Amino acid sequence: MSHNRMDSAAYLSALLAKGFSKSLASRAYSLGFLPGQFPVLLELWNEDGLTQRELLDRLEVEQATLANTLGRMERDGLIERKQHPKDRRATCNFLTAKGKSIEGPAMDAAREADQDLFKGFRRFEKELMLEYIRWAIANARSL
């Protein structure tokens, strides 16, 4: 019995994520960030000064992945790290002026990338698809 990968939710989810990342990448590069940095930027735009632990808890990524992402963001001038005022072992991640200045254009770029993925969908179809995706994610988290 053969398995068709196009019938696999995991495979299709990976393709969807890759498509969004590719669509966002072309817009993100001109703004000075990478698609993988976008979730970190979102969190810091909502609450600047988060520690790496706080970001890990919110983003559900591997520690090494986040450490590399933060290092690159610091190198690219999007964030700066400062010693935590109460915990010597921790650093807080703050947006630089550059990191703050790209919020509006980056949000527009993400919206456009999202619209690219749902081109041809009617509004209710998009909303239904998003609901199904959220439902599947909730199921995956409960495993």
Give an account of the 3D structure.
- The protein has 143 residues and is mainly α.
- The protein contains 7 helices and 3 strands.
- The protein has a 3-stranded antiparallel β-sheet with strand order 1-3-2.
- Helix 1 (9-31) packs antiparallel against helix 6 (103-117).
- The longest helix has 23 residues, at 9-31.
- It is globular and about 55 Å long.
- The model has no long low-confidence stretch (mean pLDDT 94).
Task: State the gist of this model.
Helix content is about 65%, strand content about 10%.
List keywords for this structure.
single chain, mainly alpha, 7 helices, 64% helix, 8% strand
Describe the secondary-structure layout.
Layout: H1 9-31, H2 38-46, E1 50-51, H3 52-59, H4 63-75, E2 79-83, E3 91-95, H5 97-101, H6 103-117, H7 123-141
Antiparallel strand pairs: 1-3, 2-3
End-to-end gap: 27 Å
Helical fraction: 55-70%
Count of alpha and pi helical runs: 7
Question: By helix and strand content, what is the structural category?
Answer: mainly alpha
Specify Rg, calculated over alpha carbons.
Answer: 17 Å
Average pLDDT figure: 94
Largest sheet at a glance?
A: 3 strands, antiparallel
> Hey, roughly how much beta strand do the residues contain?
5-15%
Any idea what the shape is?
A: globular
Number of strands: 3
What is the H/E string?
HHEHHEEHHH
Order of strands, main sheet, comes to 1-3-2
